[in-house]
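## Example pair
The file below holds two records. Each record gives the amino-acid sequence first, followed by its structure token line.
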Amino acid sequence: MLFNTQIPRTVVTAMALSTTLSGAAGAGPGAASEIEDRLGQYEARFNSADPKAISRLFDEDVIYYGPLGQVFEGREAVEQRYRNSFEAGFTDMEVTTLEIEVRGDTAWDIARYTIKDPSGKPLSGYHLAILERVDGEWLVQRTLVNAVMPQPPQ
């Protein structure tokens, strides 16, 4: 695919995904259950503080958009991102699945997460992950994570 330098790559990726999703047939409930299981694996691997195991949930060429505006490209960068989080003292993740949509070998999920920061204070946010079934395994291709900010006083 040729990229027009005037159009951000993320826009082109979103347009391509939209075209793929709109033309693909939906998959059965088994695929959604597999993705739900992957989210459970993510939570368990985080709570085991195992950045290598977490990174294996992501494709080699993943692009991970972090909650503070960072962009991590590739599985190794994602592994290092989690290693840094654990070294900083982030712990105790809980993941609640909000939506899963499967279209053939492509899917997306939206989930809410909570973790404890290094001082033990709970933090929360949401993630959107785009997954692809690769050799029978659902791998995250792109993910966008945000953090819920406190509302300003009214």
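Second record, same layout:
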Amino acid sequence: MKTVKIIQRSFLTLVLCLTCLLGLGTPPVYGADLSPAPETAKAYIITPSNGDTVKAPFTVQFGLSGMGIAPAGVDRPNTGHHHLMVDVDQLPSLTEPLQGSEHVLHYGAGQTETQLTLAPGEHTLQLVLGNYSHIPHDKPVLSKKITVTVE
């Protein structure tokens, strides 16, 4: 009887170890963390306007309709927080958390405006709303990309 129990324990331990090892090679599934967004939800940049010439530092005001703002980490239906894409030619994956960088700015405290200091020249700005875990919504809520010229 002892031999049977030892074999059973050994087998269960082997199965558990194999399950853990096989799971290490599996990429994380973020799609499960996608939050739905209402069809009417829209993000937009209030100011500056597309084509404006600005002096640094300048204020960027974020607009959102059809949803509300909630800080990162707060999971409430139909809410999110802003991420500002600066000079991004191609959007990052919209099914994974947005990674902060000099081109992807996070406003996880629920901010609705920011001050930017950019080098003189032409720059693009675009908003992407992220859910409580910085992942864009199932129907991504994006603003139109605008271009500003910094003097």
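Notes on the second record: The CA atoms of residues 71 and 110 lie 5 Å apart. Helices lie at 2-24.
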